[in-house]
Design brief:
With about 290 residues, the protein is of the alpha+beta class. It contains twelve helices and eight strands. Among the domains are: about 1-50, Ubiquitin-associated (UBA) domain (Helicase, Ruva Protein, domain 3, Orthogonal Bundle); about 60-155, Tetrahydropterin Synthase, Chain A. It has helices spanning about 5-15, 20-30, 35-45, 80-85, 90-105, 110-115, 115-130, 165-180, 190-205, 215-230, 245-250, 275-285, and strands at about 60-65, 70-80, 135-140, 145-150, 155-165, 235-240, 240-245, 255-265. The strands form three sheets. Strands 1-2-3 form a three-stranded antiparallel sheet. A three-stranded antiparallel sheet has the order 4-5-8. Strands 6-7 form a two-stranded antiparallel ribbon.
Length: about 290
């Protein structure tokens, strides 16, 4: 498989390694970026690459929380370009969908969009000429409190649920989640398959070679402990006061972090990259036939 410049660029952005090293790694995996990252980690001790992946889709996120902090809703509405994502009509439609989902306490996209909203979406697609769609709805209902944070660029939004505490505290922690992107609330919530994969990668790193099994096991467990702390919300240093972990911050306020939901525009979506010059040349050639 030919290794394109865009593939090398993606691997460089996700690992911080040099162009030649990235190109070599991609050749060895026949262009599989994720496998290349895993192999590089085994060989060089490279830290986990950026998790968001290629955010090829554009759009906005939105969030709304009940005045009493008992309920909150998140939405992701996608467009094809940033230009449309900043359009007032598009933003107004996103607000309509968010309000409808919030009022109905509904997270099924098809249910929320049934009727007038779907007709409005179809009319926007015809008028604007871009594909527009509601990708995700999420919500938290609680007997505790929910707080929310939305980044000013409309691309990241978070809900945090607390047992005890206040909506203001939940909002502060939601801001931390937006910035740091933890995987789980606490280490015990990390899926076991991810822990085992991390152990495998650590054990394959060069500094483990030739060491007694007991020493390797001790080193692996030490690094796994660090990995879990770095990936778990309550173990992370709070962004506004690194002297405190998020867990300690909540505890000081008589609260406990129960859950969080973080949506980022386009995370996990991939679209085929097009060589624009080649596409234009092909269209010109076809028109001349």
């Amino acid at each position: 498989m030919a290794i394109s410049a865009s593939m090398v660029k993606e691997l460089r952005e996700r690992t911080g390694l040099g162009m030649l090293e990235c190109k070599k790694a991609l050749k060895e995996t026949d262009g599989n970026v994720d496998q290349a990252i895993e192999n590089l980690r085994k060989l060089s001790g490279l830290k986990a690459a950026k998790k968001a992946g290629r955010t090829a889709a554009d759009g906005v996120v939105g969030v709304k929380v009940a005045e009493d902090g008992s309920y909150g809703t998140l939405i992701e509405l996608n467009s094809e370009t940033d230009f449309v994502a900043r359009d007032e009509v598009f933003l107004g439609f996103a607000e309509k969908v968010l309000t409808a989902a919030f009022d109905a306490k509904e997270t099924d996209v098809a249910t929320v969009m049934a009727g007038d909203l779907e007709s409005e979406r179809e009319a926007m697609v015809q008028k604007i000429g871009e594909n527009i769609g509601v990708r995700r709805l999420a919500a938290i209902a609680t007997e505790g409190v929910v707080g929310a944070y939305k980044h000013s660029n409309n691309r990241i939004a978070v809900l945090v649920e607390l047992k005890g505490g206040t909506t203001e505290l939940a909002r502060d922690i939601a801001m931390h989640v937006a910035a740091v992107n933890p995987q789980v609330v606490s280490p015990d919530q990390m899926p076991q398959e991810l822990v085992e994969k991390e152990k495998e990668i650590i054990a394959s790193q060069p500094d483990m070679a030739g060491k007694p099994e007991a020493i390797v096991e001790k080193m692996v467990m030490g690094r796994i402990s660090k990995f879990l702390k770095e990936s778990s919300l309550i173990e992370q240093p709070f962004v506004k006061n690194p002297e405190l972990t998020v867990g300690a911050l909540a505890k000081q306020a008589g609260a406990e972090v129960v859950s969080f939901i973080r949506l980022e525009v386009g995370e996990g979506i991939e679209i085929e990259e097009t060589d624009f010059a080649s596409e234009v040349a092909a269209q010109v050639a076809a028109a001349g036939k």
